[in-house]
Amino acid sequence: MTLPTLLLLAACDTTIEFDVKDGGDTGGPDVTDTDTDTDTEPDTDTDPVVLDLDGDGWEGAGGTGDDCDDGDVTVHPGAYDRPNDGVDADCSGSDRTFDGEVVDNGVTTYVDLEYVVEGTVGLDVALVFDTTCSMGGPIFALDVPDIAASTTSAGDARWSFSSYQDYAYGSMGADTDHPFRLGVQMTDDLRAVEAAIVATGRIKSGADAPESGMEAIRQALTGVGYDQDCDGRFDAVGDVPPFVSSSDDLFAGTTAGTYDPTVAGSGELGGVGFRAEGQAVVVVVTDNYMRDPDSTDRTLNSTPGGCADDAGASAVVAAATERNAWIVGILVNGTLAQAQFEALADASGFRVDADRDGRADDAPVYNTNEADLNATIAAALDDVAVAAALMTPGSDLTIAVAEDPYGVVAAVRPSSFVDADVGDVLSFDLQLVGIATDVAIQTTIVLSVLEDGRIVDTIEVDVEIAPTMPG
């Protein structure tokens, strides 16, 4: 017997017709049709149930389709799935997520944002001075108060002074030489820095060339110490004590560190007391090559083989990267170490506008003489402060749109902040208005944080522009 055809009235006045069972292939849709034509072979006809209650062109679960909500025309495979709304609109099995803002055509969306003023309050200047015989004139010409007064962008700066000659090993250096010696750690007391320079005493040998400049930079950046004969005991000749003594240092905590907690304005980082909030800058003043065990040049790569190792260019770059520190080469009366400092800059990405052409594409390496030494160091520090986007405390900041590929930013309010300091939280809202589009568009809005027209930071906001007619 042939069962009657059923008529269902669906939403939107859609009439859906199907056969419960037709008793044979009539061309109409079947609910079950395993072998209705009695030829002993399963049928392979393609007349399934068509059940699209919401009329979105996709069959629901009541038929053989994949529409996971046949009562909502906006829900079906391939539909626009608005993220984070709890609805699985594209029937993928879960709602889509998006870590950003979704905007609609013609609708203003207000995005509340906060910007924590980061950056550094000033330069932490580690002066590392070659005090071998030929550097007698430059050391006596060094005037840190004059340098400090001449810098215009160093902010709330701190200063330290250290010296080096060479390893006290074989023909490399005399017993009175040292690969690194801290004179005074970071301080805001310029008189203490001047006293440390005077206390350096007589200019020492250094014996041959090159000198231990790489080791001195590494020690200034890390404070790990140096055990020349690797015996685990501190020796006054040849060894360098750690900055902070601990059971984990090269001497197992048996020798005092050079850190002095009573020094005004100092931090505890590295080998000279860098502050966490300061921009570390190691300024090396020399007239000679630096020993580098990484070099293939036999005149440069001889070192004692101490512990933990002898510092080469790779160790210096690693230490500078970890400390987020700049390395500046001040070459006096010659250019012997120029290539070495340029290589450090290349490996670390250091670039300044030393030639004042408006482009920060120069390695921070400066050639000078005794008469111009202090002015050269001051200019180098200003270059680094600008290149490092150093923020001046109490600055007026502006937030401006730098990149808006689809023009959805209507306003930034407020966009100006007066007397901002590092650590301040600046609250503002970003007003976005979507545009007409047939497909979803994801884009990134980039905002610049400017101090006196100079970019000191950027803020990125991810945005999705929803289709105008989803479906």
Question: In a few lines, what is going on in this structure?
Answer:
It is built from 7 helices and 16 strands. It has helices at 136-141, 144-150, 190-199, 213-222, 313-323, 338-348, 373-387, and strands spanning 6-10, 14-18, 101-103, 108-116, 122-130, 158-164, 181-187, 278-286, 326-332, 365-368, 395-403, 409-413, 416-420, 425-433, 441-451, 454-465.
Q: Main traits of this protein?
A:
five-stranded mixed β-sheet; disordered N terminus; 471 residues; alpha/beta; 7 helices
Describe this structure in words.
It is a single chain. 39% of the residues are buried. The chain is of the alpha/beta class and 471 residues long. It is 15% helix and 25% strand. A six-stranded mixed sheet has the order 7-6-5-8-9-10, with helices on both faces. The chain has a five-stranded mixed sheet with strand order 3-16-15-11-13, with no helix packed on it. It is built from seven helices and 16 strands. Helix 4 runs parallel beside helix 5.
Sheet with the most strands: spatial strand order: 7-6-5-8-9-10
Low-pLDDT stretches are 1-37
Sequence of secondary-structure elements: EEEEEHHEEHHEHEHEHEEEEEE
Oligomer: single chain
How large a portion of the residues is in β-strands, by DSSP E?
Answer: 15-25%
Structural class by helix and strand composition: alpha/beta
On the 0 to 100 scale, the average pLDDT is 86
Strand element count = 16
Shape: elongated
